Amino acid sequence: MSNAIESLGSLWGPLLVLGQIGLFTLVLLLSIAFLLLFDRKVWAGVMMRKGPNVVGPFGLFQSFADFGKFLLKEIVIPAGANKAVFLLAPILTCTLAFVTWAAIPVAPGTETGTSWVIANLNVGVLYLFAISSLGVYGIIMGGWASNSKYPFLGALRSAAQMVSYEVSIGFIIVTVILLAGSMNLTTIVNNQDGGIQNWHVFSFQYFPLIVVMVPMFVIFFISALAETNRPPFDLPEAESELVAGYQVEYGSTPYLLFMLGEYLNIVLMCAMMTILFLGGWHGPIALGPELTANLPPLLLSLSGLAWFMGKVLFCFFLFALVKAIVPRYRYDQLMRLGWKIFLPTSLAAVIIVAGYVTFVGGLS
Amino acid sequence: MALIAFSLIAAIVVLAAMFVIAARNPVHSVLWLILTFFSAAGLLVLIGAEFLAMLLVVVYVGAVAVLFLFVVMMLDVDFVELKQGTLRYWPFALLVGVILLAELVLVSVAGGALPTGNMDASPGAPTNAEAIGRVMYTDYLLLFQLSGIVLLIAMVGAIVLTLRHRPHIKRQNIAKQTGRRRGDAVELKDPTPGQGI
User: Fold this and answer.
1) Cα–Cα distance between A307 and A31 in angstroms, integer?
2) CA nearest to A134, candidates B59, B14, B18
3) Which pLDDT band holds residue A6 (cuts at 50, 70, 90)?
4) Of A92 and B22, the one with more pLDDT
5) Number of H helices, E strands in chain A
6) Nearest CA distance, B182 vs chain A (angstrom)
């Protein structure tokens, strides 16, 4: 093995990264396939239906059947459409949704302070925020290039909606950055070590801040719903008024890319909630160093990965549940909630947390 | 490796910037502008200023360019008509271009103070963000706060300019809407058959 590595020389680094990216993408795509089914099953369960149950046992292969169907259909491009932009939009959405995952640490590394992540960025949080703020372009471009009224209205709505809710998401992220004292996602996760009470949502290590951080988690969750255009904030594609919003003219593979990007963004938001608030890969009960010292490091990494995936699944379950049980918001209510309630609340939280960190102490 | 990356990204920046001017459709212009911003962020990453790069993407690509696109898309202009007569402005455009180029050449030749080669993106601190923060909140604190106040005034000004209280229009009373309960809206009746209520 080591001989093989040496013979590759300087090529080893890039090859390793390529391998990591390939593996990560594969796992991500498979997870998305089953999460899609999970979403539909939860939705069906709330409505006392059975959900997809024909393809494979319990309908497990439904997503793969859908995938084949999307790929084999004909791509229809509307006559007046701006062809290049029309096709670029779904590709952009999907690419950006994949690119964000490069900075997500999913499990602890074998040495302390390291993690399983493709790119361990010092500005990881900002990177996630920056790339996910680009997601709006796919929607605007798709809506505009369709050269049709409903898609355009949907695109305008979603542009306003996503820009509005990004602001409060940004402020909430700032509170977490202040607590962890770093923008590195691995450092943020490791700041929540030591049991469930130290997760940022509870923040027992900064005692009275639980009063601030629990509401911040709730606001982040609701903003994430709005940011990913999920019900009850799915106004860009409100079928009762806009047919399907910006995706009206899309079918087959371009639509598949849009949908894939959307679900990747939803799972990304779940991963962000997990990392920023729910302790990332740390379990609810802290194992002391005397316990973990005798275990093989790989086992610890894998158990961390399992915790991470479990928490992401929990957040995704919440997303699916909200889709099933909450009616759609009206547009002015959406704007009011974002600008008049969430923005002042999160701004006040930033001031409180900053004051706490400065005067009571917290930055290590 | 870094040189190849730099050449590639710099070429994309210049090409995209040229297409911003050359594109016939204003929406395409804005899309090229977005590519320019994004590639410029890539250049910043290459010199190790990752914090600035992310801020460039968040502020310019994520917010400013969205508003550009928003406005340009809603314009209903005849592009052919718009392009007619642009030839008249060539001398003026040429003049501006020559002045800008001359200034750039002047700075790069006579300036000498421009750092070349290995620049330190984060002097005196482990990360770029910390280096900027340390300078900004110590040496330049007053200027920093001053710029904040300028922005606040601009914001208040924009709100004052656009805020109009128009009388005689129906407004939604949100408190009344959210305060509505089942008892206010639904009444159960037990109609007798053939008679109605």
Assistant:
1) 15
2) B59
3) low
4) A92
5) 15, 2
6) 16
Element (H, E) at A264: helix A252-276
Among candidates A66, A224, A72, A57, which has minimal Cα distance to A135?
A: A224
* CA within 13 Å, CB half, A19: 6
Tally of CA atoms within 13 A in the half-sphere of A279 that contains its CB: 23
The answer to whether A100 and A109 have CB atoms below 8 angstroms apart is: no
Type of residue numbered A78: P
Chain B: which residues have CB within 8 Å of chain A?
A: 25, 27-28, 31, 34, 50-51, 54-55, 57-58, 61-63, 66, 69-70, 73-74, 127-129, 172, 174
CA distance A134 to chain B (A): 6
Closest alpha carbon within chain B to A336: B174
The angle formed by the CA atoms of residues A267, A273 and A279, to the nearest 5 degrees, is 120
With both helix axes pointing from N to C terminus, report the angle between A343-359 and A149-180 in degrees, rounded to the nearest 10. 10
Decide if B40 contacts B17 (C-beta within 8 A).
Answer: no
Residue the block writes with tokens 């992220």: A173
| Owner of token pair 């320019």 | B36
Nearest CA in chain B to A123: B51
Cβ distance A85 to B28 less than 8 Å, yes or no, reads yes
pTM equals 0.84
Q: Which value does ipTM take for this structure?
A: 0.78
In A175-311, beta strands by DSSP E: none
